[in-house]
Amino acid sequence: MRGINLLALAATAALLPATPGFAAVASDDSSVDPKDRMVCKRTQKTGTRFYGKICKTVGQWEALAEENRRSLSEQTNRPQQNYQPTRPGE
For residue 62, what are the domain limits? Predict the structure, then answer.
């Protein structure tokens, strides 16, 4: 058992210098529009415990949110019907 642990430690130590560092790479973000950045969201369908992943650009998510706001506004601000039921026999 001790030999397996030493072997695993030696293999890890041998691979350590070969792994690249995780330093931040300076990128030129001035040429990329922030609305073109991809954003992925996890969604769960009703009736299941599994998640799905939907990826869209920031601009597409904003357009979807605006469409949902407009649709909700249309439904809440529409005129109400003046419905008065009649009683039978009148």
Answer: 33-77
